[in-house]
Design a protein that fits this description.
With about 130 residues, this protein is mostly beta strands. The protein has a single domain, classed as Immunoglobulin-like (Sandwich). Helix content is about 0%, strand content about 65%. It has no helices and 9 strands. The strands form 2 sheets. Strands 2, 4, 5, 7, 8 and 9 form a 6-stranded mixed sheet that branches. One of its GO terms (cellular component) is cell-cell junction. This is Ig-like domain-containing protein. One of its GO terms (biological process) is cell-cell adhesion. Pfam families: Ig_3.
Length: about 130
């Protein structure tokens, strides 16, 4: 008997619009088959069933952006009770597009007394970056 380490391909990453559904799939080629999966976001383990080969966010938000990873583990068990494990890990970047949000609107201390124009500084958060 032999043990092949899982070979993983993580699909579903890239740029996705806010409020859309994100599906990340951990596609694995392994012998024997995979025993368990682990999911990570920005190197922090997510609390997901070890039997889950896909990760779904129904309505993605800008806070969900990051680097996601899936690891898969398989085990070969011998008749004498010993075993051998192997695993692999793959990652994908998820970038979320979202509409501009005004984070601050500040008057600048400059006023034109003839036209009564006031200058404002407007700070905006968005992806892709907005132009004002």
């Amino acid at each position: 008997m032999f043990l092949d380490a899982p070979i993983i391909r993580l699909t579903g990453g890239g740029i996705i619009s806010e409020n859309k559904r994100l599906i990340l799939a951990c596609i694995v080629d392994a012998y024997p088959t995979v025993d368990s999966y682990e999911w990570y976001k920005n190197d922090e383990k997510l609390n997901i069933s070890p039997l889950t080969s896909s990760f779904i966010i129904e309505k993605i938000s800008k806070d969900d952006a990051g680097i996601y990873a899936c690891s898969a583990r398989n085990t070969l068990k011998f008749l004498n009770g010993s075993s051998m494990e192997k695993f692999d890990k793959s990652q994908a970047r998820v970038t979320v597009e979202y509409a501009p949000i005004v984070t601050s609107l500040t008057p600048i201390l400059a006023m034109d007394l003839f036209t009564l124009n006031i200058k404002l500084q407007c700070d905006v958060d968005s992806y892709p970056e907005s132009t004002i």
